[in-house]
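Q: I have 248 residues here and want to know how they pack in 3D. Can you give me a structure?
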Amino acid sequence: MSLNKVRVQLLDENTGTVLQEVDVLTSADAVTFSDGQTFQQKLDNGALKGDAGATGATGAQGATGATGTRGSQWYSGTAITGTSTTATIFSSSGITSALAGDQYLNTSTGYVYNCTVSGNAATAKWVYSGSIKGATGNDGATGATGAKGNTGVSMVLKNAWVSGTAYVNNSTQIDIVTYNGSSYACKTSHTASASILPTNTTYWTCIAQKGDAGATGTQGPAGADGASVKYGTDYATGTEVKLFFKTI
């Protein structure tokens, strides 16, 4: 099936006289640059591509930083033992390499040792310097068992009220229902019927009242004729006209 072509006409809003026949610009043709060319024209002739920027100069290589001094290392384990506070020397079994000033913590006793002679596992020497582990405290006395608390009452939501249903209010449960937009709590256990509605205050207590209906809003003014549009260089100074699509 062939498609019809149309011509856009701008008509006088009051008389319907043709004021102007116009072409509708779409996509890239609707964007115009300051030199008068459209976006599509610049795209077609390659004018949208910017010039390549110059290659920046290579920066100078920074100077090599000085080598920092190695700090002391901490070792841990259970190989080194002893409690003497004098200059007693202990073997460094299990240490592959150590420097004077390094420290060792015996994790089972809490004793700390300082390395005094650098070396590997066979030659490094360590001196006891104290303990960071305090003595084990005595167990505290077991507190008395507290009294058992009272069993709470459960609020059970039963949704909308239904005639013939058994509703409960006892030491463990209170039933809640909804009725005509309000919520009610059962006061006395009973089987619902047409004579015992949730509005019956002997059996029910209203706990949430339905709110009042909101006021009706004022009707807005009638909208403008949808066929009218603004035509001109800007909306503020544009002329009210009507659009007509003429078959060609």
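Q: Anything worth noting?
A: The CA atoms of residues 30 and 160 lie 61 Å apart. The domain at 154-208 is CATH 2.10.10.20 (Seminal Fluid Protein  PDC-109 (Domain B)).
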